[in-house]
DNA sequence: TTTAAAACATGATATTTGTCACAATTTTAA
DNA sequence: TTAAAATTGTGACAAATATCATGTTTTAAA
């Protein structure tokens, strides 16, 4: 099993602020897991016993609405931590995490993380900063959901996906989502998402073949997301 | 000027975890401010030099959308802290705070708070828990905004207002908001909010005279918010 | 490879919501 | 106190979006 103190993934998140000794201790109590495409890392209502550090793959983090539809709150990928919040607030998870492709994750037990949070102010301040940023981000999403049209949100989501996941050499956005998943990110009916994607294609603003989506005209997409 | 170590407001937020010495130090560097109805505590883009502890009054915390409309993210009232997030992430504020009535707030300089965050793990863990809760709450709002109809959101907002502010002896919800503010909380046009409020009144689910709103049938309101 | 299931797509239609116009009422300030 | 401004309220209509029905294509499993 690989060692935390040598792991490069750690450089991508708050764990980079841990000392060498703390990392060695962590390495000794962590476990590695493989999660297959479609499987859950955890479900709504689960009591998490630790946090997950994503080494490989992507998962969708979602929540059931009172209307019985699923809403995707975020996509979590290499280098991200998953589950800190339920751990810190000491409640069962309000979210569900499903792998979009095969994943490699490390599991770090709760006690280990909590010990570090209490003993290492650099670490806890980093987690705090992270949460402050997430909260700011969440505010933006709330305003977008409340004020933007479905078309605007779709345009913005496509830009966000490209910014987060980048593109391959054929200019295809490096994450494959079903139309339903896209609809569940922007909060609309699958049919509406499909229709609007087709519109964008017809107007040569994007191109797609199945789940492979490319942005052809990002400045126009930007304009659309701002309501023009 | 009153002393932090004797202040009962502090018991309502994370400041309760500070030691007596920390509170005395804080008391010596804090300043008290009066903010009149309609005035801003801070604006979007301001660089905050500290946090505000609300002693009296209510303010709305809002953000401009790209569409040019204002969206109210939250209402902040007695006992709440305001501004910790911008402080922690060390960025200019993404939010604006406007007093809904005359307010009394204490201002605690940034250096003081940051010192306590680094030195007192109990305090920083409490702030962390607070943020984790806010983030969970934000997730719920995102899903509501994305999936619920305007009518559902209005019903839920009325219930939330009553839960947060309570009622006076005449059963009137103890916060006065304009129709426009209500519309800006649920993310709809003012006219739509007015129409739906009138509907609820016609069906004897609520009652109102101007800004004084009473809930007559909260179980029905609950049903509506859940989509029936 | 064949077949069933899932995902994608599109049309028709109903519902929700926004926009504009304007009137009535309330609040604010001179 | 009175005039101006802001807020509240309502109707008519347009635009956005959801829903339902149905067909096609793609994917996965036997």
- What kind of oligomer do you see? homodimer
Proper CATH architecture of the largest domain in chain A? Sandwich
Query: Which stretches of chain A of 5+ consecutive residues score pLDDT under 50?
Result: none
SS summary, helix count of chain A: 8
Estimated helix fraction of chain A: 40-55%
- List the chains of the largest interface with their residue counts: A-B, 48 and 48 residues
Structure class of chain A:
alpha+beta
CATH topology of the largest domain in chain A: Jelly Rolls
Q: What's the end-to-end separation of chain A, in Å?
A: 53 Å
Query: What sort of overall outline of chain A do the alpha carbons produce when their principal axes are compared?
Result: elongated
**Overall number of strands of chain A:** 10
Average pLDDT number of chain A: 95
Features:
homodimer; 4-stranded antiparallel beta sheet; DNA-binding; 43% helix; Jelly Rolls; 228 residues; Arc Repressor Mutant, subunit A; 22% strand; elongated; alpha+beta
Can you tell me about this structure?
The structure is a homodimer of 228-residue chains. Chain A is α+β, with helices and mostly antiparallel strands and 228 residues long. Chain A has 2 domains: 4-145, Jelly Rolls; 148-225, Orthogonal Bundle (Arc Repressor Mutant, subunit A), CATH 1.10.10. Chain A has helices spanning 20-29, 84-89, 110-119, 121-147, 150-165, 179-186, 190-202, 218-225, and strands spanning 31-35, 40-42, 50-56, 58-64, 70-77, 81-82, 96-99, 103-109, 206-209, 212-215. Chain A is elongated, with a radius of gyration of 19 Å. Chains A and B meet through helix 2, helix 3 and helix 4 of A and helix 2, helix 3 and helix 4 of B. Chain A binds a DNA duplex (30 and 30 nucleotides) through residues 149-151, 178-180, 188-192, 194-195, 198, 210.
